[in-house]
Amino acid sequence: MSVIFERLYPHSVDMGCEEETLVQKICEIYHQISKLESLKPSKDVNTLFTQLVLTCIPESSIDVDKLCENVQDIRSKLIRLCGEAEGLLESHYSTILGFSGDNPIHHLNIFPYYNNYLKLSQLEFNILTGHCTHLPTQVAFVGSGPLPLTSIVLASLHLRTATFHNYDIDPSANSLAHRLVSSDSDLSNRMFFHTTDIMTVSSSLRDYDVVFLAALVGMDKQEKTRIIDHLAKHMAPGSLLMLRSAHGARAFLYPVVDPDDLHGFEVLSVFHPTDEVINSVVIARKYTNNKPIVHSLDQQGLAVAGSIIFPSKCSEIEAFNPLNHGNMIEELAVEEQLS
Known about the structure:
Keywords: S-adenosyl-L-methionine, Transferase. The protein is of the alpha/beta class and 339 residues long. It has helices spanning 3-8, 17-34, 43-56, 69-98, 114-129, 149-158, 171-181, 187-190, 221-234, 328-338; strands spanning 138-142, 163-168, 191-195, 210-213, 240-245, 265-271, 280-286, 296-297, 303-304.
């Protein structure tokens, strides 16, 4: 470790040499990203975020809660930068898709990571149905964004009769998302978009069998916990909450959902991938009794009765890098022609 890094970021609790090297590299990438004039898709943005994701993907025993204050601050800022970049990336592709033909849904495969969403949604569907006695008919997705691929894939392939209510605080995101499904005769009748802060939604939350909470809704522990507490207060007893979290060094990319913070919910399972899949998946049920049970998952992400949570590897999912933008120069040229 360099002397300069040691001076700026003193040793964190129980951090070994490998972990210090990892943190140093992440901090160096952060400083380069923070100097960018814009986080819109470009060659420089693509390169730096690709480096960041590839650095954070390898399995690591690092505990971000034990990092020193300076590194904790960098992690918080980095998560927000990742969120901004991801939003701009989704807007970029949603704009292209919106002008791709009579029905943009037929052209979703132009998004470089569409196949990854297919596989990730399959995993989440497997986890969901492992804890359901019947398929959900009313679904809410909080933080759906301008390119609501999870909702679209679930509605198109898995929950084909369910109604999806997508919540996002950004009107421009909902406008782009609505444009994607408005020409589809099926999805336009089953997908609805609400421009509102989920903290202002109360009675409507009781209508949903399952609520999905996007990884970047609640950028830090306090904000995430506040949102989860709100959902616990207003969701129907017995309904399910699905969240995306992060584990190890991946927690520099996304906020961590600690099962202990899911007050009012019975944690059913936690899935920590150890390959290139970034997000962990947490599923919990709104309490109907006071006896929480925790289950583990097998390698396919299916529920297995048990009393502990342990990491599991999902080897069938390809690397999911939402910030690796592919051939961005070509895509930007296409967007310019469409605008």
